[in-house]
Amino acid sequence: MITEEAILEKVMEIIEPFAPSGMVIKPNSDLTGDLGMESIKVMDMLWVLEDELKMSIPLNILMDVHTPDQLAHAILTLTERKNGTV
């Protein structure tokens, strides 16, 4: 079973190329406010995450996700539902 920490690590690794150069990415960094990621970059990042994690991530997840930490938690919840652990 994948942990939330492992997902967060992958999320932050994937966000890095989409954030401005030299930007420090923290678990609580706001994707749009702190990292300046406009909607197109967020969508591209989400597609890369889907490929890396080999799962489908619904777009409506972005309505409640503003930080890498929140995104990792949402992905964990999706994984647990898919695997029947929730």
Task: Write a brief structural summary.
With 86 residues, the protein is mainly alpha-helical. Helices cover 50% and strands 0% of the residues.
Number of helices: 3
> Could you state the order of secondary-structure elements as H and E?
HHH
Domain unit count: 1
* Highest CATH level, the class: Mainly Alpha
Secondary-structure-based class equals: mainly alpha
Q: Give the CATH topology.
A: Non-ribosomal Peptide Synthetase Peptidyl Carrier Protein, Chain A
Count of individual beta strands: 0
Strand content: under 5%
The poorly predicted ranges are none
CATH homologous superfamily caption: ACP-like
CATH architecture: Orthogonal Bundle
| Mean pLDDT, all residues | 90
Q: What Rg, in angstroms, do the CA atoms define?
A: 12 Å
What is the general shape? globular
Largest sheet: number of strands, sense, barrel closure: none
Helical content, roughly?
40-55%
Gap from first CA to last CA: 13 Å
Features:
50% helix; 86 residues; single chain; mainly alpha; Non-ribosomal Peptide Synthetase Peptidyl Carrier Protein, Chain A; globular; 3 helices
3D architecture notes:
This is Acyl carrier protein. Residues 2-79 form the Carrier domain. InterPro entries: ACP-like_sf, PP-bd_ACP. The structure is a single chain. The longest helix has 16 residues, at 68-83. The two termini are 13 Å apart. The chain has a single domain (4-83), classed as ACP-like (Non-ribosomal Peptide Synthetase Peptidyl Carrier Protein, Chain A, Orthogonal Bundle). The protein has helices at 4-15, 39-53, 68-83. It is built from 3 helices and no strands. 50% of the residues lie in helices and 0% in strands. The chain has 86 residues and is mainly α.
